[in-house]
TrEMBL record:
Pfam families: ABC_tran
Protein name per the record: ABC transporter ATP-binding protein
Source organism (scientific name): Arenimonas oryziterrae DSM 21050 = YC6267
Alphabetically ordered keywords of this record: ATP-binding, Nucleotide-binding
InterPro entries cross-referenced by the UniProt entry: AAA+_ATPase, ABC_transporter-like_ATP-bd, P-loop_NTPase
Domain ABC transporter: 13-239
Recorded GO MF terms: ATP binding; ATP hydrolysis activity
Length: 308
């Protein structure tokens, strides 16, 4: 099959039965993932869920054990330099040559990328007090993050991958980064993949929430729709609550001041009847934040060993 038979694919990322085994460890398990063009897609997962492995395979740096993957319609194992130049990448390390001045880095990038957009660059960098003659190594972490975002967006990428871009930034720098991204209209011009463990960021920026768990796809929906699947229940039960394995959809349970606090997924109002049947004198239910919903979901299997 030609490497780019489907270069105008509706999907920026497409995997079919993608698996990666490292010795006895299965990092990706028959992953079928289709990410449509446009908007901001968050990818979340606990440590070791397989996110880095997925990106290494997608970018052609690692071969899968089984299955296939395509990036911007092209076979990941056959990506050309021209295709890679259509992808922007910002990660937590903000790896730019520290000894170069900002203006020299910008000149280098301007020469390298034929679709360089000076306005996009200035729009983002204008949010930061960065001087052209400053050395990159002298910039603060937040300024370096802003410069990296400006450089990535100025190359007019079709796909922009942001991998924990705000890790290590303080609250002010984080907010500046997110606002630069949101006000840039980047999500109208390219597809953004946002990998982060910070749910408040995802809640703010993401249109689509993709959850990976042990190399498998567990959710693909708007963040609000995922929140609606999860509910918080408080039950006043004078005796021992039901055995945990009997509680339907259980993500988390805690006993605080004699009250049972449950976080459950995919349960309707019948859950109240279940609690009453186990002796609850009163029950109360409330919605949860994205942070609680996702972290409850990811923590559910945390202690169990990974399947090989
Ligand atoms: N080179 C390797 N050799 C052996 N095992 C590996 C290798 N790289 C990754 N793994 C294992 O594969 C699994 C997935 O790792 P991966 O780095 O893809 O996860 P991740 O979701 O990116 O994690 P994190 O959020 O911690 O960066 C982990 O269990 C990890 O230990």
């Amino acid at each position: 099959m030609p490497a780019c038979e489907n270069a105008m694919s509706d999907f920026v990322i497409e995997t079919q039965g993608l698996s990666k085994r490292y010795g006895g460890k299965l990092a990706l398990n028959h992953l079928d993932l289709q990410i449509p063009r446009g908007r901001i897609h968050a990818i979340v997962g606990a440590n070791g869920a397989g996110k880095s492995t997925l990106f290494r395979i997608l970018l052609g740096f690692l071969a899968p054990t089984a299955g296939s993957s395509r990036l911007l319609g092209c076979d990941s194992q056959k990506l050309t330099t021209a295709l890679r130049s259509r992808i922007g990448f910002v990660n937590e390390e903000h790896t730019l040559p520290g000894w170069m001045t900002v203006k020299d880095v910008v000149a280098m990038q301007r020469r390298h990328y034929p679709r360089w957009n000076e306005d996009a660059f200035k729009n983002i960098l204008g949010n930061y007090h960065v001087l052209p003659e400053q050395k990159v190594g002298q910039l603060s972490r937040g300024e370096r993050a802003g410069l990296n975002l400006a450089l990535a967006l100025a190359q007019s990428p079709e796909l922009l991958v942001l991998d924990e871009p705000t890790l290590g930034l303080d609250v002010v720098a984080k907010r500046a980064f997110l606002e630069s991204l949101l006000y840039s209209n980047a999500s109208e011009e390219c597809t953004i993949i946002y990998c982060s463990h910070q749910m408040e960021e995802i809640e703010r920026v993401a249109d689509n929430l993709i959850i990976l768990e042990r190399g498998e796809l567990k959710n693909m929906s708007p963040p609000d729709a995922f929140c609606e699947r999860v509910r918080y229940w408080i039950a006043d039960m004078p005796f021992k609550g039901p055995e945990q394995h009997l509680v339907p959809g259980l993500l988390q349970v805690q006993r605080i001041d004699g009250l049972f606090h449950y976080v459950v997924i995919d349960q309707d109002d019948d859950f109240a009847d279940f609690l009453r049947a186990h002796g609850a004198r009163s029950v109360q239910s409330m919605p949860v934040s994205l942070d609680r919903a996702v972290n409850g979901f990811l923590a559910k299997n945390h202690a169990a060993p990974a399947a090989a």
